[in-house]
Design a protein that fits this description.
Elements lengths: L16 H35 L2 H23 L5
Length: 81
C-alpha cells in the first residue's frame, strides 16, 4: 500500500488560491486588532501607574487602542487606501 490513505483518486489537498488569501487577511486583521487593543490597554495602565491616574488612563488607553485597531482593520481589509 502507498503511504497515504486519505488521498483517493480525484482528491486534491491543495486549497484554492482565494481561500489562502482570505485566510491570511483574516489572520492579519485579527492580530492587528488584538495587538492594538492590548497595546493601548498596557500603555494606558503604565501611564496611569506613573501619573497615579490608573482607572482613567487605562480606559482612555483602551479607547485609543480600539480606535487604532479599527483604523488598521479597515486598512488591512482594503476599505481605506
Amino acid at each position: 500500500m502507498s503511504g497515504s490513505q486519505s488521498e483517493g483518486p480525484g482528491r486534491s489537498t491543495k486549497k484554492p488560491p482565494w481561500l489562502n488569501k482570505m485566510g491570511g487577511r483574516a489572520a492579519d486583521a485579527g492580530w492587528t486588532m488584538s495587538g492594538s487593543v492590548i497595546g493601548g490597554l498596557l500603555l494606558g495602565y503604565l501611564i496611569g501607574e506613573g501619573l497615579d491616574a490608573n482607572p482613567v488612563s487605562t480606559v482612555v488607553g483602551l479607547f485609543i487602542g480600539l480606535g487604532v485597531g479599527l483604523y488598521n482593520l479597515a486598512r488591512v481589509m482594503g476599505l481605506l487606501r
